[in-house]
């Protein structure tokens, strides 16, 4: 394709926060930055000035101190703003809209809204209740929760005290919850009585009671009434209903414990499919600055905007979403199935609530297309300015579907980063064209490159996604990793003093990026490196196929490509369909990409955030144990991949 799918109007570029920021930087530093590329180059070369100026321009609260960066030539080891004092919750609540700050839909079951004053009042009472329960600076508060207003308030109250928040979604199994929270020894646990999914309620009180037997440090288990207005909590050790937990306290001004820049704010978790999840600790200042940058500059979020991301509280996009308060946005929260009851509910939500940013996953967009949804015909979407996609690579055809069937004039931003940095390496640029299949730009202040095996930066060919200079949202470290050995091994062993992220990526002629999947899942038949996303792009365009997973099977001293496909109901994998699949892959990729075997399965295992687990499939095919099936949303799906006769010859 030699033309972009979308180009912002001159008026839109002029009105963008990114333009205002660039002009302000020119005035402040006597620069002549004439566009995004020049701004990006300055943000990397002059990183200390860039990050400090971002803080000042955004009007954030706190004191950064006089020193921007210490040991800036070390990764890990660089320290940002070592004299700073700030509070994350203070910055979110100071900018929360006075009118509607939070809107909540739970499928078609529950609808609620809180004003800024109501949110602050709830945070105040929670702060006092947490103090009374013994929570203080550095203590951990854990939550097994839906994406609902009470969750937001509990997190803000935790952060206001300088305590550390960690959450997962209520569909996790008991072992998955204890594998995570058992490592961090929380003082208080939040959970609902039940949650909604696909119009059905799922009571989790028995599961919470079981979890608490493995969490002896928990002093109070606060149960949020959700499905039942007055749930019985008597069987839960330390159980107390939300209303009773708050009843002794009257709302007052929220106080804020200002903490150092790298003081722990969030603990997030790796997927855990190769063992117990790693506990990734994210700092206060780096998280705040990075999210403010991504919301205000890369997503063009303005005060009064209404921001939505379809996410659970076990995915880092929840942490990203709620930081939108710091940009003055109203948060549109959602819990439940994204397709309940008739497939259109998220687009209904967008129309009803004036959504300006619609965030979702690539899989949602693919499924919407497969389901024949055409919101461009059925919904107004007149307020929608931006649509963001993450979780897996968004294929070029999915880009085209968005502009053909969702909205023609919208900034489509395919974004990628991860739990490791609670943010993005590559993402959107609202002042630049959108090209099919491409992530538009590396994030400001992020020295992103693609490295070949020798550690040289390459363009126009595939390589490892790396970041060659320190950035503020690098994790503080891993929990219970006192000498940092696990942290260094995770990101810095491949290329010393360089962050290696684990994605297979290519810089394009337009200055954008294409991601081909996780580099640890890259196929290597005959020594040729192949990204699985290249194969998925071809296969998932076929109407017979709902989704696919591809692995490399060790075979006869080499690796051969194995493709598993989920077919539409009523179809079978016959020779004609196999020939069609192979022909399409050969013609549009290469003969090396063509699978040696194609196998039909009913389901594909995925993590609880919806990502296909290629490594778990690979282990199952090779008869290796899957160390932590609790990390999977559908672990029984792995049974279909073990001892397949089709793979024995």
Automatic annotation (TrEMBL):
Organism: Azospirillum isscasi
Superkingdom of source: Bacteria
UniProt-listed NCBIfam families: ac_ac_CoA_syn (TIGR01217), PRK03584.1 (NF002937)
Protein name as catalogued: Acetoacetate--CoA ligase
Record-linked InterPro entries: Acac_CoA_synth, ACAS_N, AMP-bd_C, AMP-bd_C_sf, AMP-binding_CS, AMP-dep_synth/lig_dom, ANL_N_sf
Enzyme class: ligase
Membership in a protein family: Belongs to the ATP-dependent AMP-binding enzyme family.
Residues annotated as domain AMP-dependent synthetase/ligase: 95-470
Pfam families associated with the record: ACAS_N, AMP-binding, AMP-binding_C
UniProt keyword ATP-binding, yes or no: yes
Ranges for domain Acetyl-coenzyme A synthetase N-terminal: 36-91
Domain AMP-binding enzyme C-terminal as annotated: residue spans: 541-611
TM stretches of this protein: none
Keywords per UniProt: ATP-binding, Ligase, Nucleotide-binding
EC code: 6.2.1.16
CDD domains linked to this entry: AACS (cd05943)
Nucleotide-binding as UniProt keyword: yes
SUPFAM superfamilies from the UniProt entry: Acetyl-CoA synthetase-like
Molecular function via GO: acetoacetate-CoA ligase activity
């Amino acid at each position: 394709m030699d033309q972009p799918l979308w180009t912002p109007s001159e008026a839109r570029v002029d009105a963008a926060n990114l333009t205002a920021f660039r002009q302000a930087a020119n005035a402040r530093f006597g620069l002549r930055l004439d566009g995004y590329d020049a701004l990006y180059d300055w943000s990397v070369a002059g990183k200390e000035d860039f990050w400090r100026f971002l803080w000042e321009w955004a009007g954030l609260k706190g004191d950064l101190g006089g020193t921007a960066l210490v040991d800036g030539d070390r990764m890990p080891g660089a320290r940002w703003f070592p004299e700073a004092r700030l509070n994350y919750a203070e910055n979110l609540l100071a900018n929360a809209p006075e009118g509607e700050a939070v809107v909540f839909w739970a499928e078609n079951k529950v609808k609620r809204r809180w004003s800024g004053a109501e949110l602050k009042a709830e945070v105040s009472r929670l702060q006092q209740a947490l103090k009374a329960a013994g929570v203080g600076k550095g203590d951990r508060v854990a939550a097994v929760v839906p994406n609902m207003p009470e969750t937001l308030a509990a997190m803000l109250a935790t952060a206001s005290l300088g305590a550390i928040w960690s959450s997962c979604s209520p569909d996790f199994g008991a072992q998955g919850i204890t594998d995570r929270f058992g490592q961090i020894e929380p003082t208080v646990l939040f959970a609902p009585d039940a949650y909604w999914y696909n119009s059905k309620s799922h009571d989790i009180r028995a599961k919470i009671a079981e979890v608490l037997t493995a969490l002896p440090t928990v002093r109070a288990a606060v149960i949020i009434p959700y499905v039942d207005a007055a749930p019985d909590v008597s069987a839960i050790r330390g159980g107390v209903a939300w209303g009773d937990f708050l009843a002794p306290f009257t709302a007052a001004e929220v106080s804020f414990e200002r903490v150092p820049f790298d003081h722990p704010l969030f603990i997030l978790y790796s997927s855990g499919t190769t063992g117990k999840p790693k506990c990734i600790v994210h700092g206060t200042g780096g998280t705040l600055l990075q999210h403010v940058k991504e919301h205000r500059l890369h997503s063009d979020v303005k005060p009064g905007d209404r921001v939505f991301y379809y996410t659970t509280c076990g995915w880092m996009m929840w942490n990203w979403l709620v930081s939108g308060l710091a940009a003055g946005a109203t948060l549109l929260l959602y819990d439940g199935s994204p397709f309940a009851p008739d497939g259109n509910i998220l687009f209904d939500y967008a129309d009803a609530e004036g959504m300006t940013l619609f965030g979702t996953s690539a899989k949602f967009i693919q499924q919407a297309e497969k389901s024949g949804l055409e919101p461009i015909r059925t919904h107004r979407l007149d307020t929608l300015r931006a649509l963001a996609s993450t979780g897996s690579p968004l294929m070029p055809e999915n880009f085209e579907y968005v502009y053909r069937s969702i909205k023609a004039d919208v900034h489509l931003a395919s974004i990628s980063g991860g739990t490791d940095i609670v943010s993005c390496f590559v993402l959107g640029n609202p002042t630049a064209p959108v090209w099919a299949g491409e992530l538009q730009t590396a994030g400001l202040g992020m020295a992103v490159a693609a490295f070949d095996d020798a550690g040289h930066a390459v363009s126009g060919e595939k390589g490892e996604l790396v970041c060659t200079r320190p950035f503020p949202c690098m994790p503080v470290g891993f929990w219970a990793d006192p000498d940092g050995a696990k942290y260094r091994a995770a990101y810095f062993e491949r290329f010393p003093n360089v962050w290696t992220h684990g994605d297979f990526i290519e810089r394009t002629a337009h200055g954008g990026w294409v991601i081909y999947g996780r580099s640890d899942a890259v196929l290597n038949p005959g020594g040729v490196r192949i990204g699985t996303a290249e194969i998925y792009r071809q296969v998932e365009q076929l109407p017979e196929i709902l989704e696919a997973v591809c692995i490399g099977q060790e075979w006869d001293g080499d690796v051969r490509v194995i493709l598993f496909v989920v077919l539409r109901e009523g179809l079978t994998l016959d020779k004609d369909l196999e020939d069609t699949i192979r022909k399409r892959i050969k013609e549009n990729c290469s003969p090396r990409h063509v699978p040696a075997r194609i196998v039909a399965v009913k389901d594909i295992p995925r993590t609880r955030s919806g990502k296909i687990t290629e490594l778990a499939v690979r282990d199952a095919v090779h008869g290796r144990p899957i160390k932590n099936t609790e990390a999977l949303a559908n672990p029984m799906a792995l049974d279909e991949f073990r001892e397949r006769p089709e793979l024995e010859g």
